């Protein structure tokens, strides 16, 4: 009888420890998120299930073209791509991204932009002055984010610049549906 009681206590301890470890990992390191909407097409599709690395920006800063999750409102997180970094100016003119006046290739958009026909616009032209807040350059601890589906994305062009405090983490792993399992391409 004592042996059976000891086994039960061991099982209960193991389950409590496993639960605490799962809580710590979910709270501080990794979390699931589901893509909601078409704003990151063609890179991410509506319904893609992804893992968010919450730890990545604790030890480092965002880099250009990272796909990030951030708190857009008190109850809604968005997934977008980092385009502009602190100290930079960003402009799009005639479907070309300029950082500090220099042309920057966006390989994840090349196929979409190649499909554009006359009178179609994929990314409407904008400059830093068009971003809410009227910044000349991106301030410290902020990034400019855009969705890959530029004509259908609520991003920095409407929300303004995103502070590092709003960032939940970086995401690059799709784990569901099975035919989409893998890493996102840059």
CATH topology: Umud Fragment, subunit A
Estimate what percentage of residues fall within beta strands. Answer: 25-35%
Task: Give the uncertain stretches in residue-range form.
Answer: none
Strand tally, please?
Answer: 11
The assigned CATH architecture is Ribbon
| Elements, N to C (H/E) | HEEHEEEEEHEHEEE
According to CATH, the homologous superfamily is Umud Fragment, subunit A
Number of domains: 1
Sheet having the most strands: 8 strands, antiparallel
The amount of helix comes to: 10-25%
By DSSP (H or I, 4+ residues per run), the number of helices equals 4
> How would you classify the helix and strand content by structural class?
alpha+beta
CATH class: Mainly Beta
Distance between the termini: 60 Å
Q: Can you give me a brief rundown of this structure?
A:
The protein is of the alpha+beta class. It contains 4 helices and 11 strands. It catalyses: Cleavage of hydrophobic, N-terminal signal or leader sequences from secreted and periplasmic proteins.
What does this structure look like?
Its EC number is 3.4.21.89. It is a single-pass type II membrane protein. Pfam families: Peptidase_S26. It is an enzyme of class 3 (hydrolase). There is one protein chain. With 186 residues, this protein is of the alpha+beta class. It has a single domain (2-183), classed as Umud Fragment, subunit A (Ribbon). It has 4 helices and 11 strands, in the order H-E-E-H-E-E-E-E-E-H-E-H-E-E-E. It has helices at residues 2-28, 56-59, 110-114, 156-159, and strands at 30-34, 49-53, 67-71, 77-84, 90-93, 96-99, 102-104, 142-146, 162-163, 167-176, 182-183. Strands 1, 2, 3, 4, 8, 9, 10 and 11 form an 8-stranded antiparallel beta sheet that branches. A 3-stranded antiparallel beta sheet has the order 5-6-7, with no helix packed on it. A hairpin with a 2-residue loop joins strand 5 (90-93) and strand 6 (96-99). The longest helix has 27 residues, at 2-28. The radius of gyration is 21 Å and the shape is elongated.
């Amino acid at each position: 009888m004592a042996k059976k009681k000891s086994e039960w206590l061991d099982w209960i301890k193991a389950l409590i420890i496993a639960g605490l470890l799962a809580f710590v990992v979910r709270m501080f390191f990794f979390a699931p998120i589901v893509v909601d909407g078409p704003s990151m097409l063609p890179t991410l599709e509506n319904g893609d299930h992804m893992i968010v690395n919450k730890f990545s920006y604790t030890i480092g800063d965002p880099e250009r073209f990272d796909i990030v999750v951030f708190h857009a409102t008190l109850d809604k997180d968005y997934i977008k791509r980092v385009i502009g970094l602190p100290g930079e100016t960003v402009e799009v003119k005639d479907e070309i991204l300029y950082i500090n006046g220099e042309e920057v290739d966006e390989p994840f958009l090349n196929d979409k932009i190649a499909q554009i026909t006359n009178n179609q616009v994929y990314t409407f032209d904008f400059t830093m002055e068009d971003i809410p807040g009227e910044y000349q350059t991106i301030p410290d601890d902020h990034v400019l984010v855009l969705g890959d589906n530029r004509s259908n994305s609520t991003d920095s062009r409407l929300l303004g610049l995103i502070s590092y405090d709003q960032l939940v983490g970086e995401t690059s792993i799709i784990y569901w549906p099975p035919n989409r399992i893998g890493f996102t391409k840059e």
